[in-house]
Amino acid sequence: MGHTIQRECTRCGTCCAKGGPALHREDLSRLEKGAFGRKDLMTFRRGELVRDQISGELMPLEQEIVKLRGRDTNTWTCRFLNIVDHLCFIYNDRPVECRALDCWNPEEISAMYDKDRITRMDVVGDESGVAELIRVHEEKCGYAQLERHSAAFDADPAAREAFAEAVRFDMAFRAVVCEKAGIPAEELEFYFGRTLADTAHMFGLKVTVTEEGPVVERENASAAA
Ligand code: SF4
User: Fold this and answer.
1) Domain carrying residue 209
2) Ligand 1, atom 1: nearest CA belongs to which residue?
3) Which of 68, 99, 121 is the last residue of a domain?
4) What residue's CA is closest to ligand 1, atom 7?
5) How much distance in Å is there from the Cα of 81 to the middle of ligand 1?
6) Would residue 2 count as lying in a domain?
7) What is the pTM assigned to this prediction?
8) Residues with a CB atom less than 6 Å from ligand 1
9) pLDDT > 50? residue 133
10) Which residues pair with 218 in a beta bridge?
11) Could you tell me where the DSSP H helices lie in the chain?
């Protein structure tokens, strides 16, 4: 019995369930016309560990990417996938990666997926007020310096404190920009990426929020004690 060779999308929804696409320059016009908004976006910052779309391997990002978010915090499934019939809510305005992705023939997506990706600055503009907030946040919470703090975390109390200080800053900063700068809470992960409390596990660390503030420790610290 011969195998059927797939030549077209069968609307199984598998691609969309693996996560929303990263956005490219061509997608800016779709953002501008309102096919999706900033609340639908999530930034993965430079140095953040992400799974490479093609190789499937976890690797740190050399350059930040902006993606369509998942449906909620428990799943990466693209928020525009109708999980009942596996159709796309924004099909006519779907991003360029979705157009290039033929799961039975990955050549087109392999050739374009890491080219012309947009960053936050492409969306907000380099000179805007929020661009300055993004720069301040990167200066305090950039992954390159967190990597250095985490490498010395076990041996150096100053490195532990520096990591904890970045986590405290990240939490406080998000609260302040919502309250004082009027940034909607649902847009925070576009402007400032995932919280350090969420991404500390990249460094083998975990953050526990207590009444006294966040506590940062090795993920296996309790088990080892
Ligand atoms: S935008 Fe549409 S086609 Fe693209 S991943 Fe989301 S649901 Fe799938």
Assistant:
1) 125-224
2) 94
3) 121
4) 81
5) 6
6) no
7) 0.91
8) 16, 20-21, 68, 78, 80-81, 88, 90, 94-95, 98
9) yes
10) 205
11) 14-17, 28-32, 96-100, 107-112, 120-124, 129-141, 143-151, 157-181, 188-192, 196-199, 221-224
Total domains, the chain: 2
pLDDT of residue 222: 57
Last residue of a domain, one of 65, 95, 121: 121
Amino acid at the residue 34: G
pLDDT value of position 224: 47
Q: Whose CA is nearest to atom 5 of ligand 1?
A: 16
Closest by CA position to 166, among listed 139, 134, 201, 129: 139
- Residue 67's contacts (CB-CB under 8 Å, 6 or more residues apart) are 19, 20, 21, 22, 23, 41, 42, 43, 44
